[in-house]
């Protein structure tokens, strides 16, 4: 009899605890994000300047295609959005904001190229939770951070800076914001710059 | 009557200790202090000021200057994909309040874009057309006070004009059924 009560109690305990953790759905979502804490605002030295020709690159995109900066030459203004790493707090809430303003970027004849130093499978899993992104997401994984290094935004820990480069249709850099890694660059800053160029 | 075996007693105590308080109440953290200190920019829209019973036409207000018995606050961000997905449900929830006479007379709802500039809140308004007033966080007051908050995050406050208010509910994450959420609030607040 005592054994039966003991077994029933344990089952009850397990069922109860499992049901309580299921209540906290948002807790589960929060647990997907790795909190890196507050980081040194910037940790690299720029290798390009406004007015210079943007260094050419080719990177593999999430769709499997190679994407080159020169693909957009004469066609679109390019906004390079480097973010430090997948599954980190600020980065996970940056591109989803850009994702709802496709019309604003298109109105300014601009496209975003999102770049991180993560590999394709990681980017696939990470961007799935953002919904379907309208802009290409590029992997600067191997040689590790080569494009970030080319632009001078590879940090000493191998992640990228949170940086925006705006490149006009002639391939000239018109705007650079190597932002404090702990904060998100305001959207209106980017849009205002695009409007100036357009 | 048979005594409760010691092992059963230990298990029951373990359950009580390991069950978080918010599991039953919906409460996660105590944000009463930051909510009391919070200042919001007075809306430019006269209709929104009228809805909230705000007499000032400019400057800042505290939450307890809003004229309502119950205030529902959704903390959101334009950048948060969960807030974007949840926006239509939040709109349905507001419609459910307005459809229910008892609720409409006593409950007010606002949204606050944590860390969002006026431009970013404007984008959210344009994309999701929330029918309730949205406030921006141009001075970063909200992002500083509620650092690390999960969005969307809901607060339900019982207000007494000009006095301290009571936080009845606070929880991260949205809800899927607007009517059910309103029912929960009406039960919680005793509105009939």
How would you sum up this structure, described in words?
The complex is a heterodimer of chains A (198) and B (192). Chain A is globular. Helices cover 36% and strands 18% of the residues of chain A. Chain A has 2 domains: 2-32, no CATH class; 58-197, Glutaredoxin. Mean pLDDT of chain A is 86; it is low at 4-29. Chain A has 198 residues and is α/β, with parallel strands linked by helices. Chain B is an alpha/beta fold. Chain B has a single domain, classed as Glutaredoxin (3-Layer(aba) Sandwich). Chain B has helices at 6-18, 22-25, 32-37, 46-52, 81-99, 101-106, 118-128, 141-145, 178-189; strands at residues 39-41, 60-62, 70-76, 107-113, 134-135, 153-158, 166-172. In chain B, strands 5-4-3-6-7 form a 5-stranded mixed beta sheet. A two-stranded antiparallel sheet of chain B has the order 1-2. In chain B, α5 (81-99) packs across α9. Chain B is globular, with a radius of gyration of 19 Å. Chain B starts with 5 loop residues before the first helix and ends with a helix. Mean pLDDT of chain B is 85; it is low at 8-27. The interface between A and B is medium-sized, with 34 and 30 residues.
SSE order of chain B in H/E notation? HHHEHEEHHEHEHEEH
Radius of gyration of chain B from the CA trace?
A: 19 Å
Number of domains of chain A: 2
- Coarse morphology of chain A: globular
- Terminal CA distance of chain A reads 82 Å
Number of helices of chain A: 8
The CATH architecture designation of chain B is 3-Layer(aba) Sandwich
Quick description:
The complex is a heterodimer of chains A (198) and B (192). With 198 residues, chain A is of the alpha/beta class.
Q: What are the salient characteristics of this protein?
A:
heterodimer, A: 198 residues, Glutaredoxin, 2 domains, seven-stranded mixed sheet, 8 helices, 7 strands, B: 192 residues, alpha/beta, five-stranded mixed sheet
Question: SSE layout and pairings?
Answer:
The complex is a heterodimer of chains A (198) and B (192).
Chain A: H1 2-23, H2 25-32, E1 58-61, E2 66-68, E3 77-82, H3 89-92, H4 95-99, H5 102-107, E4 110-116, H6 120-128, E5 137-139, H7 146-151, E6 162-167, E7 173-179, H8 187-197
Parallel strand pairs in A: 3-4, 4-5
Antiparallel strand pairs in A: 1-2, 1-5, 3-6, 6-7
Chain B: H1 6-18, H2 22-25, H3 32-37, E1 39-41, H4 46-52, E2 60-62, E3 70-76, H5 81-99, H6 101-106, E4 107-113, H7 118-128, E5 134-135, H8 141-145, E6 153-158, E7 166-172, H9 178-189
Parallel strand pairs in B: 3-4, 4-5
Antiparallel strand pairs in B: 1-2, 3-6, 6-7
Helix pairs in contact in B: 5-9
């Amino acid at each position: 009899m005592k054994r039966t009560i003991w077994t029933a109690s344990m089952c009850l305990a397990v069922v109860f605890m499992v049901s309580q953790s299921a209540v906290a759905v948002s807790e589960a979502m929060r647990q997907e994000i790795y909190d890196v804490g507050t980081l040194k605002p910037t940790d690299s030295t720029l290798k390009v300047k406004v007015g210079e020709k943007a260094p050419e690159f080719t990177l593999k995109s999430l769709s499997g295609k190679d994407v080159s900066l020169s693909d957009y030459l004469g066609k679109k203004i390019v906004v390079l959005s480097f973010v430090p790493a997948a599954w980190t707090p600020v980065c996970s809430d940056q591109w989803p904001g850009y994702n709802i303003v496709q019309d604003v970027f298109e109105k300014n004849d601009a496209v975003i190229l999102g770049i991180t130093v993560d590999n394709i499978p990681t980017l696939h899993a990470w961007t799935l939770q953002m919904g379907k992104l309208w802009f290409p997401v590029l992997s600067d994984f191997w040689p590790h951070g080569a494009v970030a290094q080319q632009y001078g935004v590879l940090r000493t820990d191998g992640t990228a800076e949170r940086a925006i480069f705006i490149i006009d249709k002639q391939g000239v850099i018109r705007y650079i914001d190597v932002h404090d890694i702990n904060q998100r660059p305001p959207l209106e800053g980017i849009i205002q710059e695009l409007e100036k160029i357009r | 009557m048979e005594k409760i075996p010691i092992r059963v007693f230990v298990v029951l105590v373990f359950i009580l200790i390991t069950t978080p308080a918010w599991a039953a109440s919906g409460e996660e953290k105590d944000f009463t202090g930051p909510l009391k200190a919070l200042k919001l920019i007075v809306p430019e829209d006269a209709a929104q000021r009228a809805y909230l019973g705000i007499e000032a036409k400019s400057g800042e207000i505290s939450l307890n200057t809003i004229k309502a018995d119950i205030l529902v606050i959704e903390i959101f961000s334009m950048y948060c994909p969960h807030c974007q997905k949840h926006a239509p449900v939040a709109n349905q929830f507001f419609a459910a309040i307005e459809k229910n006479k008892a609720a409409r007379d006593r409950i007010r709802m606002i949204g606050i874009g944590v860390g969002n500039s006026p431009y970013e809140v404007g984008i959210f308004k344009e994309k999701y057309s929330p029918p309730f007033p949205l406030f921006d966080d141009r001075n970063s007051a909200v992002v500083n006070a509620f650092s690390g908050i999960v969005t969307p995050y809901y607060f339900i406050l019982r207000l007494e004009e000009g006095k301290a208010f009571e936080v009845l509910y606070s929880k991260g994450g949205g809800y899927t059924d607007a009517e059910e959420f309103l029912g929960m609030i009406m039960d919680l607040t005793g509105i009939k």
